[in-house]
């Protein structure tokens, strides 16, 4: 989808199409408006609208699944039925859509764009805790959590230091204006800037590495691994694997991980 839009944008620029009001986001609609008419123009505009809805629907479904499976079923109602999970998931998905619509309609449009950039900075901080925690046990779990917290705090602080600059070079907001963090904040005499998420990730990894050394030096236990090698492999017909019909008709034996522990 992004490749198609990029191709259309390249064609529009090559054809000398100018964006409306200097807004580059309008260059593809301008291309359609200048080359199509009637039904074809309506279909092209409809395709743009559907293309905008696809990522929104994917993100709302993903957020609903995360809430239902990782929060609702794990901590609120471990014995929830598939029907209850489905209702909670639909409600969560609807609330995410309404919240996103409210952000676009009620907040400044540029702030809505910057908010998405800020979200990328914060999501990136999950990489060490998730990737390193899953694929290696060299990092202490408490150190990974400390690194995650440090990355989130430093990322938010860097975003707070980034001003919002209009097309004419005028500063419209002194805070949360993008994701490019000026290196001048480090005392360097340069105009270069780095992605705030990458800088925060460096802080994240540094804290995780240092925290791991401290935890090992103080002999802090790493905790008990609740997984088993059999959890990662299963053949067809294995009785431990729940098939889709069992989820649909409600016959299930799922228990939240925290509820599996015996006192």
Any chance you could write out the topology, listing elements then pairs?
Blueprint: H1 2-14, H2 27-35, H3 38-76, H4 82-106, H5 109-124, H6 126-135, H7 141-160, E1 164-165, E2 171-173, E3 180-182, E4 193-195, H8 196-217, H9 244-248
Helix pairs in contact: 1-2, 2-3, 3-4, 5-8, 6-7, 7-8
Characterize the structure shown.
The structure is a single chain. By secondary structure, this protein is mostly helical. It has 2 domains: 36-106 and 237-263, no CATH class; 109-220, no CATH class. It has helices spanning 2-14, 27-35, 38-76, 82-106, 109-124, 126-135, 141-160, 196-217, 244-248; strands spanning 164-165, 171-173, 180-182, 193-195. Helix 3 (38-76) packs across helix 4, helix 5 runs parallel beside helix 8 and helix 7 runs antiparallel to helix 8 (196-217). The mean pLDDT is 78.
| Total domains | 2
- Which band does the percent of strand residues land in? under 5%
Describe the global form: flat
Count of individual helical segments: 9
Compute the gyration radius: what is it?
Answer: 24 Å
Percentage of residues assigned to helices: 55-70%
Order of helices and strands: HHHHHHHEEEEHH
Q: Which terms would index this structure?
A:
two-stranded antiparallel ribbon, 9 helices, 4% strand, flat, mainly alpha, single chain, 2 domains, two-stranded antiparallel sheet, 263 residues
Give a concise summary:
With 263 residues, the protein is mainly alpha-helical.
